[in-house]
């Protein structure tokens, strides 16, 4: 299974939804809470993943590839494609 990384802030409802979805599916992930250095991390994420415009959270990375936020994660899950996305 590919590594899953999620960047969050502690006040974000979509971050909590993403974590809940991953937990309900039994998907292990590493969480990086950027609340304390939010502006710095958002800039770094934007630069590293070439994100145009405002960098939102959560940012979900699967196998080193940024898939986006909760809406995209949920879309993959509802389509039954999340497990396939996680396969090595």
What does this structure look like?
With about 90 residues, the protein is an alpha+beta fold. The chain has a single domain, classed as 3-Layer(aba) Sandwich (Glutaredoxin), CATH 3.40.30.10. The chain is about 40% helix and about 20% strand. The protein is built from four helices and four strands; from the N terminus they run βαβαββαα. Helix 1 (about 15-25) packs parallel to helix 3 (about 70-80). The protein is globular.
Strand order of the largest sheet: 2-1-3-4
Q: How would you classify the helix and strand content by structural class? A: alpha+beta
Order of SSEs, N→C? Answer: EHEHEEHH
Helix content: 40-55%
Beta-strand share of residues: 15-25%
How many helical stretches?
4
Total of domains:
1
CATH architecture title: 3-Layer(aba) Sandwich
According to DSSP, the number of beta strands is 4
Question: Tell me, what's the shape?
Answer: globular
Task: Tell me, rounded to a whole number, the average pLDDT.
Answer: 96
Biggest sheet features: 4 strands, mixed
The CATH superfamily bears the name Glutaredoxin
Point out poorly predicted stretches: none
> Class, according to the CATH hierarchy?
Alpha Beta
As for the CATH topology, it is Glutaredoxin
